[in-house]
Amino acid sequence: MAAFIIRRLLQSVLVLAFMSLAVFVGVYAIGNPVDILINPQADQAEIARTIAALGLDKPLWEQYLVFLKQALSGDLGKSFAYNIPAIQLILERMPATLELALAATGLAVFLGIPLGLWAGLAPDSWAGKLIMTGSILGFSLPTFWVGLMLIMLFAVELGWLPSSGRGPTAVVLGIPLSFLSWEGIRHLILPAINLALFKLSLVIRLTRAGTREALLQDYVKFARAKGLSNARVVGVHVLKNIMIPIVTVIGLEFGSVIAFAIVTESIFAWPGMGKLIIDSINVLDRPVIVAYLLVIVGLFILINLAVDIVYSLLDPRVRLGAAAE
Amino acid sequence: MQREPTPLQRIAADFGQSKLALAGLVGLTLILLAALFAPLISPQNPYDLAQLDVLDSRLPPGSKAGNGLTFWLGSDGQGRDILSGIFYGLRISLVVGVASTLCAVLIGLTLGLAAAYFGGRTDGFIMRVVDIQLSFPAILIALILLALLGQGIGKTIFALIMVQWAYYARTVRSAALIERGKEYIEAAKGLALSPARIVFRHLLPNCLPPLIVIATVQVAAAIALEATLSFLGIGVPITEPSLGLLIKNGFDYMLSGKYWISFFPGVALLATIVSINLVADQLRDVLNPRLQK
Amino acid sequence: MTESTLRVENLRTHFFTRQGVVKAVEDVSFSVEPGKILGLVGESGSGKSMTGFSIMGLIDPPGRVVAGRILLGGEDLRGFSPEAMRGIRGNRIAMIFQDPMMSLNPVLRIDTQMTEAIRAHADVSRGAALERARDALARVGIPSPEERLYAYPHRFSGGMRQRVAIAIALLNQPDLIIADEPTTALDVTIQGQILFEMQKLARESGTALIWITHDLSVIAGLADDIAVMYAGRIVEQGSVDEVLDAPLHPYTHGLIASVPSRGRRGEPLRQIPGMTPSLLDLAPGCAFRERCTRADSACAKDPALSSPVAGRQVRCFHPLIA
User: What's the predicted TM-score (pTM) here?
Assistant: First the structure.
């Protein structure tokens, strides 16, 4: 088990190194680093100084080392628009995005698994069919359009919920959180639902498919032959089997939730990393784009590693190794 | 004795079992026809500046323009007929979605088959790239590519291709590997059949059913992704608006109650995506050997 | 006269599919006495497994038990509510499946899968349930049961897993065990061991045993009575020695003859010509007549069970009476 973790860690480091190289090549070798990293409004002296500081007059491999060194120490350039270090800007916005992403994922899991189980156990009932149709819709509807509709219905027509922005935040352990106040929750509801919808549909469909397949398995028949109650057969035997692929997917999809937050944040003016990147692209604030790339890549590698470890903990066949046969 | 139905007839019959899927197929056909004949059926050509009058702008559905034309679905900020805009926008949305999917399928098919057939280092390398790419969400990759490349239809199609090919490559490789592991391929190799023959006659037909299902779903996903990117302002340019861009144009007017500018293009987008998904869902059930009882 | 453990009367189980009605079990009657072993023999599709599931109440839609009585100790199970049937399963009737790899849940530990079978039927503490589980494992010959309890199924070999399944079946001291081809998936040597142990257990505990199989040689060494099934019907019944020595039904005769034996080395293998009929919309008349050398126009009508020899039953117009 420890060997497995160490191996995955090493793999992750390798991928990280590879991706940093890719970003470096993209920015320094293919793009023009002067355009990308130096504020176009700087004067000649400033430009010359920055070129020397970044080592842009040196050979390419030396530049890579400077790049790595700076990246590891957290220096990824200054934002053109805000004139503060890009990495600081991103870290300031990260809690908002994570709060939104976690709320959405929570909704998807705690609603999706029960609904999917229901649809899998009674696929021909009106409830089962309704759930499946709903999931097809939730899966097909583009996130941004659902967001628009939510705003139109709940904010404009009914006036129940605010249409944009993040509510008041309370600082917990140095991190500003907004779900601790009712006003904060009111602002969180629509964007969280919007972001959750796609995942929710996915979880429902996965759970339903997994349940239907599990019910055909011999071990379910055997469990019923032992006289176990339906609740136990479904709640323990079936659930434990289908949890494994579902958890894996949820974990892997968490990354895409963070990515899709870009759209939700833009629509609801939620001050997270996603809105930042769109704004930055529109004003060509390139250091922020580069910094965002690296942070996101690192985040994803971390998520994939975490999912692999959790998966191995859940599936005893992986944990104890096939070699134990 | 009755003649055995051909596989195609059997698939068509199984497909027809679901009324929803048939509805989806009908809807899809109508949409395709509308896009194809857009210039013929649009009341107005929204890109002909001579036909536009800014006094006709932001009129609600059912109003009449200065020249007597009826805006069935209302008009937008520049006085363009929404209905016509939808027909023309459908074209762009469909072309981008289908073209990118087809190219991505071809690339993925080639690389997947190559990986499965040659195995070893080729396989390892291709799959490593596929794995890395698939661990990042599509929207992110598309975002970065378009941020670097800028706007444009060709660039959007390129970004969508780059986002999709890896998924096809992996699917094709899995299916091809299953087939390759079967003994008759060893036998065929033993008979010194040329690699091309083995790949095309034996490996390829086995990969097609899952590929067809996935590609169909992916067309819908590509259309949705393009719409999202255009909505964010980094997809197609404003001179050739897809449905996504039309929706973006109407976003600002929504808060003042002029919902139709965003709403109707949104419905059109929805109808397209849902139809494709309904068809794809039924195709998946029909082509899945495991669910055949 | 002691009550039979199980008495099945005129059981019919039909499947109502889109393509038509499949009469999986037609007019099946037999009984099993305490401590005795009944062999239920037939090819795939003969309805033998479905008979077992019908008794357990595990027939799922589109199938249904449409007629007959299933008397467990005199009570008709068909009249039982679903909750009452649940109380019977794993408690008074236990079932062993063919493939132990598939019937044990791969993600749950052995102790979980055993204690839940106990605690579903009795209010027993976890510790007491574990003790009983441990004893059951020891009884079926699994070494170091204390450690094995906490293992997962994939750590066991096929034969071991089947022993675990048998142990689970024995946990609540059932009146009847239905074993559905339990040794088919195992090596022949393991098969022999398990057969021997099952026989011993049945004799010692007075549990009745129904052994479902397609393998006549297994029945020959194991069972007291035999019932031969074909196309959903019982075609011959009687004690094992009598039926195997002098079969009355042409099908039984064909089955026995097709078993390869040392005495016939060098001769071509004997087969029953033709194939088992599809149970979908089966034509009336004797289901075996297409393949029978003794068939004539009389066989176009459904034969009923008759008793040409005392203690035996056969469903045939032309039984092989010496």
Answer: 0.73
